[in-house]
Write a sequence for this structure.
């Protein structure tokens, strides 16, 4: 490590959000709060709580992805990403406040979940069978435990990384590798349960063994898009000059490209298996999302989340130039909102009271509010620490990286 000290570029100053970004994020928070306030005040409780659920889960996914990404790269020995590690570390700052905000959804359980009504459960054989697990008490326990575990692992892993800035050496790298292995095992279990309670249980009669994998892929694709967006903006603005360049962009662009293809694979597999088996308890999910005007929305989803970004990122240059990566990353982030909207909104109708398709103006505004708040917390965390882990033993290799 010492042999490379004099080869390092000048240490960069603290990096924070530009005033323009802070202004846009603050405006988004106001727009989101206004949309939620209107929905609640007008008595549209189902619309209000579904909007809240979409936005809260979107932002929570970004926060937990930051920790998952760090853990995956710690285990893989991905030194190419050392200079952009502060980005996912700052994303984890959302876990605690975002987790609390996500659990507020329980206050609107009666407007979102059939199984939250005791009389409905007692009159329904399927819901009665699921009742020992599918109830508000278990939702609360599993949700709180999962979020606390994520926040605790974030404190340990990110804290060790920041102590390395002062102490140097390889001790933090080795301890984080062990902590990352343990976290990923716990994450696989807890995230599956969280995705089940928050999203899958909206369709309480539905059965799917692939849903948690799909939501995990959603989070990875969207989180990678956010990291790509921040890294591309930094390169475009000349921030971290000498530490972050087009070679690093190329790798993160390839990751976004890979997750986009993997999402299409998982999404198609779930649809194909359900279509082929043709079991009523499985097909109900898609039938509900092709009737009552939802079919065009469903057709748009693979176009937004796979076809368009896949085609745009095929050329090599598209993954190396900030100007070409930024719009793709924004599109993927919007596509994640679109998918969450399709997971939540059609599920709010039951029996004769089916939910009809509508333009998601309120839902989009609410999600923008959560993303704006997430961005402000992310920016606050990013500027509190050195933007590059200067004493990481993999830094020199990262600076010499060529893709």
């Amino acid at each position: 490590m010492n042999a490379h000290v004099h080869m390092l570029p000048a240490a960069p100053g603290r990096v924070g959000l530009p005033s323009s970004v802070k202004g846009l994020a603050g405006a988004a928070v106001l727009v989101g709060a206004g949309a939620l306030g209107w929905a609640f005040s007008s008595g549209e409780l189902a619309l209000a709580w579904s909007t809240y659920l979409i936005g809260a889960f979107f932002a929570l996914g970004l926060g937990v992805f930051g920790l998952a990404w760090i853990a995956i790269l710690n285990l893989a020995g991905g030194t190419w990403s050392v200079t952009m590690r502060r980005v996912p570390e700052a994303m984890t700052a959302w876990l605690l406040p975002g987790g609390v905000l996500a659990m507020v959804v329980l206050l609107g359980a009666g407007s979102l979940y059939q199984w939250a009504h005791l009389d409905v459960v007692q009159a329904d054989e399927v819901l009665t069978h699921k009742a020992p697990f599918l109830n508000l008490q278990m939702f609360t326990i599993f949700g709180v435990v999962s979020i606390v575990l994520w926040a605790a692992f974030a404190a340990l892993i990110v804290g060790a990384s920041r102590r390395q800035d002062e102490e140097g050496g390889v001790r933090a790298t080795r301890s984080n590798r062990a902590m990352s292995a343990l976290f990923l095992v716990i994450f696989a279990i807890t995230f599956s349960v969280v995705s089940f309670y928050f999203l899958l249980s909206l369709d309480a009669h539905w059965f799917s063994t692939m849903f948690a994998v799909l939501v995990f892929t959603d989070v990875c694709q969207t989180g990678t898009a956010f990291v790509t967006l921040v890294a591309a903006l930094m390169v475009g603005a000349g921030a971290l000059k000498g530490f972050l360049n087009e070679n690093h962009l190329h790798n993160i662009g390839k990751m976004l490209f890979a997750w986009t293809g993997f999402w299409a694979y998982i999404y198609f597999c779930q649809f194909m298996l359900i279509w082929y088996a043709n079991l009523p308890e499985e097909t109900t999910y898609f039938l509900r999302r092709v009737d009552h005007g939802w079919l065009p929305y469903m057709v748009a989803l693979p176009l937004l989340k796979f076809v368009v970004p896949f085609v745009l990122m095929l050329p090599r240059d598209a993954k190396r130039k900030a100007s070409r990566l930024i719009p793709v990353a924004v599109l993927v982030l919007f596509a994640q909102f679109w998918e969450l909207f399709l997971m939540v909104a059609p599920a709010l109708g039951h029996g004769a009271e089916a939910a009809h398709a509508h333009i998601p103006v309120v839902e989009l505004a609410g999600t923008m509010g959560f993303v704006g708040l997430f961005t402000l917390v992310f920016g606050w965390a990013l500027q509190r620490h050195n933007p590059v882990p200067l004493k990481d033993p993999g830094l020199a290799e990262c600076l010499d990286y060529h893709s």
DSSP finds 16 helices and no strands in the chain. Residues 16-386 form one domain. The chain has one domain: 16-386.
